[in-house]
Amino acid sequence: MKTLLRSRLVLGTAVLSLLSATLYACKDFLDTASQGTVQEATLLTKVGVEGSLIAAYRMLDCTNSVGAWGCAASNWVFGDITSDDAYKGSEASDQPGATQVELYTWDIGQAGDYIEQKWSTVYEGIVRANSTLRLLARVRADKPQEISDGAAAGIRGEALFLRAHYSFEAWRMWGKIPYFHENDTDPATGLAFVLPNNLSVDSVAGLINADLDSAMALLAKTPRNGEVGRATFWTAKAYKGRLQVYRGQFAAAVTTLDSVATAGPYALETSFDHVWTGFQSLKNGKETIWAYEASSNDGEPNGQNANWGETLNFPHSGSPFGCCGFHQPSQNLANFYAVDAVTGLPKAVADAGWNNRDSTWVAAATDTVDPRLDWTIGRDNVPYKDWGLHTAEWIRASSYGGRYSPKKNAQEDASGSQSQVGWNAAQLNSVHIHLFRYADLLLLLAEAKVETNDLAGARTIVNQIRTRAGVSAQGCGSSDSALVATYPLCASDSRLAVPINDASITWATYKVGLYTTPFATQAEARTAVRYERRLELGMEGQRFFDLRRWGLAYATQVMGDYLTEEKTRRTYKTAQIPFASKYMFFPIPPTQIDLSVVGGQSMLTQNPGW
């Protein structure tokens, strides 16, 4: 399976030196003095345009121009630790800015550094997409034979899609944002205008939708040059449906997403372990709609093309990874995977005591759980992929962040995707970071069907997701001596994934039941879909954004219930501020407001409450 060519990535890295790190008003990189080895004559070619486009793709994850870790492609800072899915983890003294983000003190201390990094990342991506569009137009005008019509359409479509993606990320963070098009520059100076954020939240969404429509009209249905990882017509159409759900345009979303599900190239992977993986043969599989194409051992000397935004998010010093213990799953999330021993449905559906378990959830065959628990969460005395047993020694400070570890982002030992270079090389890998995958799309479609009163259609989709979840579970993974000492059957069985009722499994009882009777009400269907999103997408940076778009009252209730219990589990949680209307959007970084001043007047207006 072909991926983006290394030569293109190297060129993209060179072009990065010509693209200044974005704050608010960014200079057109064609008006920036040439640096390094890339000259204007090189840029004004097809190779230069393609390199500029790759530079735009590169902003999907952290680069050394914006720092870390608010720039992470996975949104673990803004989508997970702000929700009931995860704690910042590690220990109290490390990365206090992330703790402040978790505790909702977004306007004090170092929390602003993380929010600034996110702003810089998405707007740098927008600048690079727009720079590609301007460079393409200039080359087409100056050298009409340089780039064919077909190639030009593909390049323009990809750049428009990238602009839509980065704008979507900014929109769901801040709501009313300035929306930059490629020709929003002052003809006299060539510099970008300082645009106000005076459009309504939905008007901004309309501009994102327009870019997606334009991209769809230009992009082919298969990746350009056969390079998997590039945006296609189907990528843009799937993303359009996602945006429609976020906007509450449920009837339109059903039409769009049904079309993708029916005619598009996507499908669920046959086994959950094929979704988040370091195995080259499984990357860019049929479930991948849009991902950051992390790349390790590709010639970049510091591992910067790997999963840099996840570098902190591995078990700590007692583990094979050595560091750093961040992004720890919450007790609440672990409890959510408990299922009724008879029906196999989530206990949370009907059991008010589903969240009562406060002790560390270690391996026990008497526990009946959804197998996605052990694909999502590293817990004691359960194999951790193929790295051996997860134990208490893998945790940095259990009294602070609990006893669980993130798992989806970790590479398999046998995959060979671990980086050989870079800071914390054991935590750098080429596990692709899913920004949008097919299971997510199906659950958005199910949500839209609920809201248009197609309860039967929603149940079919939820059961489809649950059927796949019931195919496989974490197996022994290895014949590590400590593992074999605990589970002797593993001495001759190193399978990573096994059927959920396999005889080798003695650390849990796995069960996944289906919803066998029709949903009686829209509310019942809505709950089932929302619960399934959490089970399927746990620790993938979606949870907080889901809670917000489901409404202020819903988010307030969920987070209120969560904190009531969590304050008894993690003492630092007593400082967390309850969810309220101001948290529906993050504060615009004050630095950006200062930089937006024109004629003594700030062009950017701060979000309400900040």
Task: Summarize the structure in words.
By secondary structure, the protein is mainly α. Among the domains are: 6-73 and 112-265, Alpha Horseshoe (Serine Threonine Protein Phosphatase 5, Tetratricopeptide repeat); 343-405 and 471-511, no CATH class. It is 39% helix and 6% strand. It has 20 helices and twelve strands. The strands form six sheets. The protein has a two-stranded antiparallel ribbon. Strands 2-7 form a two-stranded antiparallel ribbon. A two-stranded parallel sheet has the order 4-10. It is globular, with a radius of gyration of 24 Å.
Radius of gyration, CA atoms, in whole angstroms: 24 Å
Largest sheet: 2 strands, antiparallel
Q: Could you say what the CATH architecture of the domain at 6-73 and 112-265 is?
A: Alpha Horseshoe
CATH fold-type name of the domain at 6-73 and 112-265? Serine Threonine Protein Phosphatase 5, Tetratricopeptide repeat
What topology, given as strand order, has the largest sheet?
1-3
The end-to-end distance, rounded to whole angstroms, is 48 Å
Sequence stretches where pLDDT stays below 50 over 5 or more residues: 1-37
Q: Strand share of the residues? A: 5-15%
The CATH class designation of the domain at 6-73 and 112-265 is Mainly Alpha
